[in-house]
Amino acid sequence: MLSNPDMLYICASKFQMLEVANIACCSYFDDFYTTAKRKIDVVMRLAELYRPYLFFKAIFDDKNTDMLRAATRNSMDSEDVFHFQFDPLTINWEDYMMNVHFPSVVKHLFK
């Protein structure tokens, strides 16, 4: 399996070959080259943007949230508890990521 540096090297070398072919053919592939360069720039920008999150090694838990919810249940009446419910287990994370987060990132990235 290829490592990330190997994959980047292969992509970069193929793109350089396209650049050389474009120059050799008197800019015949200029439109294709420009479009490909823009797409690669966007992918590289996204990779840089998400790098800290992709390689973050922390483990998250919700122990403090559970304790706060328990304290809230004990100190508030049932109507307030209903209105201030914040159980992260009730969130559909896949739906959130696919239908809210990613579309928002794409929308603001391509402004």
UniProtKB/TrEMBL annotation:
Transmembrane segments: none
Pfam entry (one): Sterile
Protein name in UniProt: Fatty acyl-CoA reductase C-terminal domain-containing protein
Annotated GO MF terms: alcohol-forming very long-chain fatty acyl-CoA reductase activity
Species assigned in the record: Kalanchoe fedtschenkoi
Domain Fatty acyl-CoA reductase C-terminal, residue spans: 26-111
BP GO terms, sorted: long-chain fatty-acyl-CoA metabolic process; suberin biosynthetic process
Family matches, as PANTHER family: ACYL-COA REDUCTASE-LIKE PROTEIN, PUTATIVE-RELATED, MALE STERILITY PROTEIN 2-RELATED
